Amino acid sequence: MRLLAAVLLLTLPTLAQDIHVHVDPHGPGSIDSTTDYKTIQNALDHAPQPPAPFRLVVEITPGTYNERVNVTRLRPRVTLLGLGKRPEDTVITGAQNAKSTGGTYFSETVQINADDFAADNLTLANTSGNNGQGVAATVRSDRAIFKHVRFLGDQDTLFADFGRQYYLDSYIEGGVDFIFGNATAVFDHSEIHAIRPGWLTAQSRTTPEQTTGYVITNSHVTSGLQPFTVPENPGVPIHQSFSLGRPWRPYSRVIVMHTELPLDLNPQGWSKWKPNDPTPQAFYAEYRNTGPGFHPKDRVPWSHQLTTQEAAAFEPSTFLRGDDQWNSLAAAAKLP
Questions:
Q1: Is 215 contained in some domain?
Q2: Is 158 inside any structural domain?
Q3: Which end of the chain is more exposed for a tag (fewer CB within 10 A), N or C?
Q4: Helices vs. strands in the chain: H and E counts, helices first
Q5: How far is the C-alpha of 144 from the C-alpha of 118, rounded, in Å?
Q6: pLDDT digits (tens, 9 = 90+) for 21-47
């Protein structure tokens, strides 16, 4: 009997594996199922939980899902996987905003609180528009990965608030402070798109000892800003501009490197939170950027142009490593 028990203990872990479930609004699923569900939230609420280190993979049929999704702390190691050919084919969307919900922190379409979360090949959207804060995704997950994910919104699109987060081959658009919070986040080989004058980032590091901050690297910053005219002078177009960031909290930290910058980026690059604020204590820096918007001599005097040695600390694998030696690049490579 003891020998049999020992064999079982050795064998059972080898039988464990990732659990795959399917979401299709028109499929056979129900909350009683263990494999098929009609909504994403039903899958998260009722699917079996695999033992560590295995994952729950939620495979989502292409379509538009008008639902609010909450990945709770009790659901670690979840992967949301869109089954379409493109991220645009699978959309999770909502239209809440701070006015309609009672605050920015209640307006998100998707809330992610569990560690080791991953998403691939889908779109997270908040369509409330230019109507105050409206969050597409709130991310409070350590070792989170977003690959081929689109984040659509206007003000406060992505609340990257806690934990180490790696965004790869993704697209983020908004108008005002549309990447904000106090996560340790890297945006790699991605597009950051400004849809109106404002600020790309509002990072909120509160002390200089915190290891948090945002790194935008090997990416493209783009914009859809259009010149406009006023009746008093119809023949002279007025060109709009935006900034890379402003400090939501005193020690805000954002580094932009190896990234192409557009012409309508404000030559000063960075802004104070309010125009009359004292010189910020924020750490805003660039390294080897390119494009018509890269004007290092015109940047605000309290920003930095990094040396090669200084920039090395902000390479994705180094900046996200942490005490547990997390390999963000290897983890992302495991996704499709």
A1: yes
A2: yes
A3: N
A4: 6, 24
A5: 6
A6: 999 999 998 888 899 999 999 999 999
- The secondary structure element, H or E, covering residue 217 is strand 213-217
- In a shared domain, residues 27 and 162: yes
Quick check: is 4 in a domain? no
pLDDT digits (tens, 9 = 90+) for 49-60: 999 999 999 999
Annotated active-site residue in 142, 156, 169, 264: 156
Quick one: tokens of 176? 């005002």
| Residue 303: domain span | 208-227+240-321
Instruction: Provide DSSP, 151-195.
Output: EE-SBT-EEEEESEEEEES-EEEESBS-EEES-EEEEES-EEEES
With pLDDT > 70 as the criterion, what percentage of the chain qualifies? Answer: 94
> Is 183 domain-assigned?
no
Q: Rounded mean pLDDT of the chain?
A: 94
pLDDT of residue 8 exceeding 70: no
Predicted TM-score (pTM) of the model is 0.94
160-198 residue pLDDT tens: 999 999 999 999 999 999 999 999 999 999 999 999 999
The rounded distance, in Å, linking the Cα atoms of 205 and 3 is 55
Among residues 169, 177, 188, 264, the one annotated as catalytic is: 177
Task: Give catalytic status of residue 264 as yes or no.
Answer: no
Q: Which residues contact 333 (CB under 8 A, 6 or more apart)?
A: none
Cα 52 to Cα 74: distance, rounded to the nearest angstrom: 13
The CATH number that applies at residue 49 is 2.160.20.10
Chain centre distance of CA 79: 15
pLDDT at 10 over 50: no
Answer yes or no: do 151 and 287 share one domain: no
Q: Active site includes 116? A: no
DSSP H or E stretch at residue 11 = helix 2-15
Contacts (Cβ under 8 Å, ≥6 apart) of 155? 130, 132, 133, 134, 174, 175, 176, 177, 178, 198
